Amino acid sequence: MDEQFILRVPPSVAERLDRLLSENASSSEDKSLDLEFSEDGRTGMFVIGNDRFPASLLDLPCVVESYKTYDDSALVKTADVGQMILVRESGEASPDVVEYRHGLTPPMRDARKRRFRREPDLNPELVQRVEKDLVNIMSGVTVENLDAEANGQGEAGEENARNANKKAPAAPASKPEVPGPGGNAGEPDGTDSDDSDDSM
């Protein structure tokens, strides 16, 4: 797949880019186009003609797929776009965040806050305790053993936990019910039920 990004420029620069990329580019005075980044890889300069504009590389709040077509009916996916180069006018302040707040279209305005749920606030001690319990369970120690050790019962608690894990001895088989002398031995009683079939 190709590597792609979104280039967002101010309207004045967009007109110049349109003229430069159009078919009569030879008549345009803006024949050079360049993008330079500083060492941090997030800030740089966008150069068109003799003018320089500040630019920033920002992460999009969600991945956007791009497609191309050869016959105007079948689309072929070309890339997942996850970053945008934001070109600003010279006087505008640079963004102080790495992730762009909005998506590319109006419905995705303030996307991170409106569309995605927040990260849960978890207590780090609770997370570490649960992680330790999971590691112990995976290594063969049962949770009951951990609770017994935590309560300070030591060997007695371990013995109780081992006994609790053992299967209980099977109960002696009970004798089948023998009907009394007045009953019909071997024949079901004559009660009507919904399960009976009277179609005979």
Rg estimate, integer Å? 37 Å
What's the number of helices?
A: 5
**What proportion of the residues is helical, as a percent range?**
25-40%
How many strand units?
A: 5
Order of helices and strands: EHEEEEHHHH
Q: What global shape is seen?
A: elongated
Strand order of the largest sheet: 1-5-4-3-2
**Sheet/helix structural class:** alpha+beta
Distance between the termini: 73 Å
The average pLDDT is 75
- Major β-sheet annotation: 5 strands, mixed
Share of β-strand residues: 15-25%
Uncertain spans, ≥5 residues at pLDDT below 50?
none
Outline:
The chain has 200 residues and is α+β, with helices and mostly antiparallel strands. The chain contains five helices and five strands.
Descriptive notes:
The two termini are 73 Å apart. The protein has five helices and five strands, in the order βαββββαααα. Strand 3 and strand 4 form a beta hairpin. With 200 residues, it is α+β, with helices and mostly antiparallel strands. Helix 4 packs antiparallel against helix 5.
